[in-house]
Amino acid sequence: MPDYDVVTNYDKPSKELVAKFATIEESASIYEVMQKNALPGNIKPIWPGTRMCGTALTVRNYFDDNLMLHKGIDMLQPGDVMVIACNGYNRSGGLWGGMMSTSAKARQSAGLVTDGAVRDSMLIKELDYPVFSSGINVFTTSKLAKGTINQTVVIGGVSISPGDIIFGDNDAVVVIPKEIAQEVYEKTVAREEKESLLAKRIFAGEGTTYDLCGYDKIFNSLNLKVQA
């Protein structure tokens, strides 16, 4: 990536592949395939039932200043998810609020993820704009500080590059690196199809996860004493 504070050109997965990811049932399915790249559990949807899928536009922000966030909004393209890395600083919900969500929604952004805080949650709900954050409060911000846009950022130990696919639901936000997105999608679909078949067998009375998944064999190998 060139050494610019604001990068405007970067690769994205195809719109068709992103649309396919949007049909995945659960974030857990994607995580289980990768066994990594789930953001920390304190980053949650501000309203239950929220779903989001799009490509990352990354912003590195500092403390309680949101100048770079406003610039990022101006750069949003349809289907982008704004990913704001604040180094876990969540004392200022004024970093992101209702008018910023309105602007992002108008630009057809797919949503927002931040390890910082947000505010104006009721308006954001009315907008039906997906927002995942580590907190909600009303404290204000300045608009003076530098930051970066579309450089790789880290949230909760997970590296996120511009163009990576971001999938969020009620359970988690997961990051799918764009370089392996096709492979992850195929494996995720196979996993969900396998679980769908398992569910049908369970409801058909064939057994439970205990025996159908072979966990009974593991249990028996432990030589546990079971009351008769």
Distinctive features:
single chain, 228 residues, alpha/beta, two-stranded parallel sheet, 8 helices, 32% helix, 19% strand, elongated
N- and C-termini, Cα separation? 65 Å
User: What's the number of helices?
Assistant: 8
State the order of secondary-structure elements, H for helix, E for strand. Answer: HHEEHEHEEHEEEEEEEHHH
Mean pLDDT: 96
- Please tell me what the overall shape is: elongated
Q: How much helix, percentage-wise, in residues?
A: 25-40%
How many DSSP-defined strands?
12
As residue ranges, the low-confidence spans are: none
Strand coverage percent: 15-25%
- Structural class assignment: alpha/beta
Largest sheet, described in full? 8 strands, mixed
Query: Rg from C-alpha positions?
Result: 20 Å
List the helices and strands and how they pair.
Layout: H1 15-21, H2 27-34, E1 44-45, E2 52-60, H3 67-75, E3 80-85, H4 98-106, E4 111-114, E5 117-118, H5 121-127, E6 131-133, E7 135-136, E8 148-149, E9 153-155, E10 158-160, E11 165-168, E12 173-176, H6 181-203, H7 209-212, H8 215-221
Parallel strand pairs: 2-3, 3-4, 4-6, 5-7
Antiparallel strand pairs: 1-6, 2-8, 2-11, 9-10, 11-12
Helix pairs in contact: 2-6, 4-5
Structure description:
The chain has 228 residues and is of the alpha/beta class. It contains 8 helices and 12 strands. The strands form 3 sheets. Strands 1, 2, 3, 4, 6, 8, 11 and 12 form an 8-stranded mixed sheet that branches. Strands 5-7 form a two-stranded parallel ribbon. A two-stranded antiparallel ribbon has the order 9-10. Helix 4 (98-106) links the parallel strand 3 (80-85) and strand 4. Helix 2 crosses helix 6 (181-203) and helix 4 runs parallel beside helix 5 (121-127). It is elongated and about 70 Å long.
